[in-house]
C-alpha cells in the first residue's frame, strides 16, 4: 500500500456512514458530487454546539451569546483564509451555492444591468447558475448567452471569447462541471471577462473540495460554494465578494441584523457582510463548515487532489474497457467526476441496478438540461469520488456496471 493509500485508509475510518450496509451490501458511496459524507469531527462539532453553545449571535447580552458569536465569526475567518480573501468582511454566509448566485443576481445584477446588456454563462452550467441570471435578464431586458464546449467536454475558449463584448456585464461560470468534471481555467476566464469590463462570478460548488482556491490570485469578483459539498453541513454556503463591490450593493433580504437604524419611515443598513445576513443565521452551519475546513486542511488539498486524481484515472481506465460504455468529459484537467452511459440502456435503469449492488451513484440530468441537450442525451450515470473512496470501490462500480450491461442489453 502506498503512503497516500495508507493516509486515506485512515481518513475513510472517520466516516460513520461507511460502516453501514445497504440492500445487504457494503455501501459504496460514489455520489460525492451531489453531497459529500460527513466526517465524525464535523458531526461532533455540530453536536457540541447544540449541546453546550446554543445561543443566538450578535446579541451580546450573555456568556453563551458571546461563545456562539465567537464561534460564528471564527468560522467566517476560517472561510476567508480557506479562499485567501483579503478580509473576513468579504465572506457572506448564505444557504448554499444556489442562494449565493441568487444574492449576486438579485442584488448586484438587478441594480447594474439594463436593457441590451448581456450575461455570459457556459453551456455546462448547473441550473443554479443559469436560472437566477435568466430571472434578472427577463426583468431588466438583458440577454443570457452561453459559451459552447468542445467534444471532449472542455470549454470552447474561442466561442467564449467570441461571445464576450462591451455589452457583457456579468460572466458566470463553473469552476468544475458537475457532469463532465471539466475544470475551467478560472484565472484565464476571469482575465478575459475583465478585459471587456464585465464582473465575474465563479460557481465553486464542485471546486473547493478538490483544488486550492485563491480568490485574490484568480481575481474573480464573486465566488460561491456550498458547505455540504466539502464535508460540511447542509443549508450552509458562502458568497465571497470583493469588499468594494459588496459595499456598493443593496441588501437582498430585509430584517433583523442587517440594519443600522430603523424608524417606521426608513431603514439604514448595516455594513457588509451583515447587510446580507438578515435574520438569525445558520449558526451551527457556520460552525460545522469551520470543522469541515479544518478536516480538509488537516489532510491537505494537495494530497486530496493527488489521491482523487489517481482514483479518477483508475476508474476511467476500468470503465472505458467495458464494451458499450461511453464516457462524457475527457478533458485533461478534470475533477473527480466520471459521467457515462451504457449505449442502448437508460441511465435510470443502470442507476437502479447499481443501487441494488450497494453502489450509490447519481443518474439523471444533474440539473444541467442545456448540457444534456448539447450532449444529445436525456441523462447520464455519474460516479464521483472523494477522500473516503478507494480502488475497491472502483472495482465494485465496474463489477456492477458489467452486471447492468448484461441485464439491460
Ligand atoms: N453548481 C454546481 C456545479 C453544482 O454541482 C451544484 C450542486 N449539484 C450547485 C451549483 C447547486 O448547489 P446547491 O444545491 O448546494 O445550492
Describe the protein's architecture and organization.
This protein has 409 residues and is α/β, with parallel strands linked by helices. It has two domains: 3-30 and 300-408, Alpha-Beta Complex (Aspartate Aminotransferase, domain 1); 44-297, Aspartate Aminotransferase, domain 2, CATH 3.40.640.10. It is built from 14 helices and 17 strands. It has a seven-stranded mixed sheet, sandwiched between helices. Helix 4 (97-112) packs parallel to helix 5 and helix 12 crosses helix 14. 49% of the residues are buried. It binds 4'-deoxy-4'-aminopyridoxal-5'-phosphate.
| Spatial ordering of strands, largest sheet | 4-10-9-8-7-5-6
Helix content: 40-55%
Range of strand content: 15-25%
Arithmetic mean of pLDDT = 97
Structural classification: alpha/beta
List the ligand species. Answer: 4'-deoxy-4'-aminopyridoxal-5'-phosphate
What is the gist of this entry?
By secondary structure, the chain is α/β, with parallel strands linked by helices. Helices cover 41% and strands 17% of the residues.
